[in-house]
Amino acid sequence: MRSESRDHTESRDHTAPAARAAKPRRLSGWTTRRWLAVCTALALAVLLGLVLCGAWIFARSTAINNRLVDRSTPALIAAVRMESALINQETGIRGYGMTARPEFLQPYRDGMAQQRAAERKLGTLAQDDTGRRDLAEVRRRAEEWRTRIAEPVASASSPTSLDTERAEEAKRLFDALRTAMSAQQRHLETERADARADLLDARALRNWTFTAIAAVILGLAGAVFIGLRRGVTDHLDRLSADIRTVAAGDFAHRVTGSGPADLRLLATDVDTMRARLADELAFRDRTQATLAAQAVELRRSNAELEQFAYVASHDLQEPLRKVASFCQLLERRYSEHLDDRARQYIAFAVDGANRMQGLISDLLAFSRVGRLQTEHVPVNLEDVLNRTTYALTTAIEESGALITHDALPTLPGERTQLGMLFQNLLSNAIKFRSPDQPPRIHITAEHTDGAWNFSVTDNGIGIDGEFAERVFVMFQRLHTREQYAGNGLGLALCKKIVEYHGGTITLDTGHTPGTRIVFTLPDTEATGEN
User: Fold this and answer.
1) Could you tell me whether strands 440-448 and 505-507 are parallel, antiparallel, or unpaired per DSSP bridges?
2) Residue 84, phi then psi, degrees to nearest 5
3) Which of 61, 216, 282, 393 is the most interior residue, by most CB within 10 Å?
4) 441: helix, coil or strand?
């Protein structure tokens, strides 16, 4: 009762810290996930702003470039072409007026077509008031020169006199036209220069903006690295160092947490597990100490029991030998004075003493199986079977038994006990043979799933399936001693030997005729505690 109370107290002391440790405290503060979510949102917002700024700069630069390429430069080129067309017209009219030769009118007509094309182009490109005013002024001046000079000269019957008459007016009108075209081209060149300057400014702004974006991205990457290092990695390193200290065997070392709330909670859970493991290990050490003391006591008790069994068997067999010897001596010395009934009584006494001696020897052998722990060594079962059949030579020859077998393996075990196993199985097969035919015994061996499956099959009288469990129980006999000698320990001893070696043994109830005992032995060392 005191021992049970002490065990109960130890169990209560062992489970109480674990129960207390199973309730981790809640920690407040931001978790790593929340920190990462907020920082990621801020970084994305900054990046989005930078992307929008870059998109605006790119769009502005593209618009200025398009204005320069698609409007300012083509407008200036069209103005120059229109000036060239008007100069060609003036040259053609002046040549016709001086020579009256019709071929000089061709440049005039070509120049008019070129002028109209240039005007249409300028009309499309002129999008501000200055451009439209300049174009209108050039058109007005050109129309005035054409109305007053070009058309009358081109249609006059005497162009030379008309050209001489209006030479001063023609010079004045065309000079005014030149002035208008110069003003137009000057305004277009100024617009083109402004667009070019805006483009250069936009490019400079774009370069500075993209440089700033790259710097901000690098800054964000550095901030993320430093933030992860200081906010997560450093705390994880400290936690890992504490865990490695505990894993190295220092279970008294506390695991402390720092940093975000989830890392501190993780450290608390790990420390709780450490405390529980420390309690478990302390309890295990106490249990091992108790088991070690019990093992020492058990070995001492087994040694005393073995000594008692040896002394008991010796002291019990000695009186039995004397009883048998004196009964036989009494029969020989006074045989002429004994009747048949007296001789029968003496025979009963001698037989009982002999059977008692055999029973004591078998009980002693049965008790030694598994109790005398010896190191398992590789045992060649072929050699064991040969020795067994040699020991049973007399019984084999008298019964005419034929024993065959498959190739038998070498397994770890105790040679003596495996020899007893085969001897009992073969002895039973010979003993319980069929009266009308000699024994035929076959031993098989098959390796499957890390174990060897053996069977011992005979053609004897067989065993009814309802006794499949009973035959392996001590002192359970299916026949009287008058029919078959024995004490009912053979198969019980076989079962104990097989189980000691880590195997199983059964009766194959489906086999007929005869008997088949099936048992397994592992192909690696396995010792059963019995």
Assistant:
1) unpaired
2) -65, -40
3) 61
4) strand
